[in-house]
Amino acid sequence: MKGYLVLDLAINELSGFMEYVQKIPEFIKKHGGRYIVQGVEPELMEGSWLPQRLVVLEFPTKIAAKEFLNDPEAQQLFSLRKATTTSNLILAEGCE
């Protein structure tokens, strides 16, 4: 079953974050992933959760999503994202 990474983020330092934006697609693709939602401002429909920006990535499997997150070559970029944003990230397995 597919794996989905959902990232809720607020950008605190745009110029530093742009390096992440430019370089991370290579690693997403390397692990078979693709953007489903790419940095949009979501519209609140119910409840109180309202991220400033939302990203949803789809991977062929939950394992592939974890491999993306653990890719040693991408760790510097993940550190950059964490330093330039306030974010929450979850992993969910899709339905068949």
Characteristic terms for this protein:
3 helices; flat; single chain; 4 strands; 4-stranded antiparallel sheet; Alpha-Beta Plaits; alpha+beta; 96 residues
Your description of this structure?
By secondary structure, the protein is an alpha+beta fold. The chain has one domain (3-42, 50-93): Alpha-Beta Plaits (2-Layer Sandwich), CATH 3.30.70. It is 36% helix and 33% strand. It contains 3 helices and 4 strands, in the order βαββααβ. Strands 2-3-1-4 form a 4-stranded antiparallel sheet. Helix 1 (14-30) packs antiparallel against helix 3 (75-84). The protein is flat, with a radius of gyration of 13 Å. The model has no long low-confidence stretch (mean pLDDT 97).
Brief write-up:
The chain is an alpha+beta fold. The protein has three helices and four strands.
- Can you tell me the number of structural domains? 1
CATH architecture, please?
2-Layer Sandwich
- How many DSSP-defined strands? 4
- Strand neighbour order, sheet with most strands: 2-3-1-4
SS-based structural class?
alpha+beta
Topology as a string of helices (H) and strands (E): EHEEHHE
What secondary-structure arrangement, pairings included, does this model have?
Elements: E1 3-11, H1 14-30, E2 34-40, E3 53-59, H2 62-69, H3 75-84, E4 85-93
Antiparallel strand pairs: 1-3, 1-4, 2-3
